[in-house]
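> call design_seq(struct)
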């Protein structure tokens, strides 16, 4: 009679039917992500070209690492090693690299030299006033989120179900994203985003500089109707 202390019995009890699938030949479809070009971003107010140049380099690193993770994960899947600790650790890393890539694209994509004005009668202006009572109240709240201690992002999100808007803090790149929420305005507050131009204690000055460079037309395009 088998005992639960018999290692083979334990192994058989835990034996997933999917494990047979691991032994089959697998081929996973994959397209590598391409780095987007933000080199047109120059002469921003209060954010130096040197900061941007370094920042583009960091972004390129996230694209590279996202592709590398994808390749490694696919390689392990194709080798039938999906259930291994190595596979699990790569999967755990995925949200960091992927969001690191994507959040930078939103961030660079919502700025332009010369900035622009958020018009109170625009769809976004009206929606912000509706939710926060005024654009100034919303902006103050967004800036306060951005000034929170720690490394991360301030994001104005839209809930695709209720269509409402809310400001959120994301720690690193992956903690605080809400499933399905659409990033409308994204601000990087990792210190690499401003340390060449401002002291850490002067983060609020960087936040003001960020606002002076926002491309509200690009932001407005992200809004769900
Ligand atoms: Fe960044």
């Amino acid at each position: 009679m088998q005992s639960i202390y018999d290692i083979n019995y334990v192994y058989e009890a835990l034996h997933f039917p999917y494990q047979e699938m691991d032994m089959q030949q697998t081929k996973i479809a994959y397209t590598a992500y391409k780095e987007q070009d933000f080199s047109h971003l120059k002469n921003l107010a209060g954010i130096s070209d040197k900061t941007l140049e370094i920042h583009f380099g960091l972004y390129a690193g996230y694209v590279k690492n996202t592709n590398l993770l994808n390749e490694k994960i696919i390689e392990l899947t194709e080798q039938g090693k999906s259930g291994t600790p190595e596979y699990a650790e790569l999967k755990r890393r995925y949200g960091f690299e992927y969001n690191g890539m994507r959040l930078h694209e939103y961030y660079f994509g919502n700025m332009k030299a010369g900035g622009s004005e958020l018009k109170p009668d625009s769809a976004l202006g009206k929606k912000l006033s509706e939710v926060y009572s005024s654009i100034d109240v919303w902006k103050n709240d967004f800036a306060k989120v951005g000034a929170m201690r720690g490394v991360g992002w301030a994001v104005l999100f839209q809930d695709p179900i209720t269509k409402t808007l809310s400001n959120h803090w994301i720690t690193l790149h992956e903690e605080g994203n809400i499933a399905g929420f659409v990033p409308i305005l994204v601000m990087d507050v990792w210190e690499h985003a401003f340390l060449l131009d401002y002291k850490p204690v002067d983060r609020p000055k960087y936040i003001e500089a960020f606002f002076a460079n926002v491309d509200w037309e690009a932001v407005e395009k992200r809004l769900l109707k």
